[in-house]
Amino acid sequence: MKNYKIAVIAGDGIGKEVTDEGIKVLQAIEKLDNRMAFSFEYFPWGCEYYKKTGKVMDVDGLDKLKEFDAIYLGAVGAPDVPDHISLRDLLIKIRQGFDQYVNLRPVKLLQGAPCPLIGKKENDINMTVVRENSEGEYAGTGDWLYKDKPQEVVLQTSVFSRMGTERIIRYAYELARKEHKSITSISKGNALNYSMVFWDKIFAEVGKEYPDVKQYSYLVDAAAMFFVKDPARFEVVVTSNLFGDILTDLGAAIAGGMGLAAGANINPEKKFPSMFEPIHGSAPDIAGRGIANPMAAICSIAQLLEFFGEKTWSDKIIAAIEKVLVDKKVLPADFAGTAATKEVGSEIRRQLRII
């Protein structure tokens, strides 16, 4: 039997509500498949923890997390805590500290999911965005000079190392080769004359090793337009930290909304635990009301299982969600339904048992 140890950081707002439903899915699978078992340890970190202790996570938080097989994150954020504190002191700290340099965001239109693009079907929106997750524009390097004076100047320095750029591009090429798909690099080399020219150079260099993979390159503004006008042209997409962050939210919008959007923060070498999360945020306006959509959190459980090598169960989870979306009998409020968080989770588990 495989015993997987999961660290749970439910976080803030709706985080606990949606992660509870994801955990119940793992517990249901545990009963259906005697090859695996899951244990959970909960950490109370986030903005509420910050307001009590002055820390978003414990000083030795990474030491506490490193022994786990994976981290399951709900959401972090609160209106009265600056976003740069909640983001940098937990999410980015974990991503960088555990070298989770691959951010995987599936942009796939599921059966039954709403799509704002007229005439687009499931086959038209089915891509994987591979986002560099450890450096780039979010490296946190810069300075603030002459603060609060008339000559005030801020410097935000993007960091693109050869190692960091090459490894994320190579990861994307390997994924494209494995899945027999094309690869598209998204950059802004016409304006960012150092970082993105360098990115384009590395993409072309690595591409010579993959002559079997169809290769494309777009400027980010053109790519944003084609995400909406012709998303079918994208299969595997590789891009920088900032561009990936923005484009994947656009991808979520065209593939059913934030209620279905999940992201995986991967350390491919498995030297450190990887982290899985819905990307919808803490939604403080609906927190505690029991109406949050748990589907994105459950989609992130599907990513977790695929990372563990349990692709069959990962696919079954997505199929169960699709069945709920197609049936339209138990839908959350953001999909024009009236079902509570727990009711949606329960229906997904019911479908999972009969698939």
Describe the 3D structure.
- The chain is built from eleven helices and twelve strands.
- By secondary structure, it is of the alpha/beta class.
- It folds into two domains: 1-105 and 257-355, Isopropylmalate Dehydrogenase (3-Layer(aba) Sandwich); 115-255, Isopropylmalate Dehydrogenase, CATH 3.40.718.10.
- The strands form two sheets. A ten-stranded mixed beta sheet has the order 2-1-3-12-11-4-5-10-8-9, sandwiched between helices. A two-stranded antiparallel sheet has the order 6-7.
- Helix 1 (15-32) crosses helix 9 (295-307), helix 7 (220-229) packs parallel to helix 8 (241-254) and helix 10 (311-327) packs across helix 11 (341-354).
- The longest helix has 18 residues, at 15-32.
- The radius of gyration is 20 Å and the shape is globular.
Q: Can you tell me the CATH superfamily of the largest domain?
A: Isopropylmalate Dehydrogenase
Gap between N and C termini: 23 Å
Q: Which band does the percent of strand residues land in?
A: 15-25%
The CATH topology assignment of the largest domain is: Isopropylmalate Dehydrogenase
Mean pLDDT comes to: 97
Whole-number radius of gyration? 20 Å
CATH architecture of the largest domain: 3-Layer(aba) Sandwich
Classification by helices and strands: alpha/beta
How many helices?
Answer: 11
Structure summary, number of beta strands:
12
Shape: globular
Name the strands of the widest sheet in spatial order. Answer: 2-1-3-12-11-4-5-10-8-9
Question: Considering DSSP H and I runs of 4 or more, what fraction of the residues is helical?
Answer: 40-55%
Main CATH class of the largest domain: Alpha Beta
Structurally, how many domains make up the residues?
2
- Low-confidence runs (pLDDT<50, min 5 residues)? none
| Biggest β-sheet description | 10 strands, mixed
Order of helices and strands: EHEHHEHEEEEHEHEHEHEEHHH
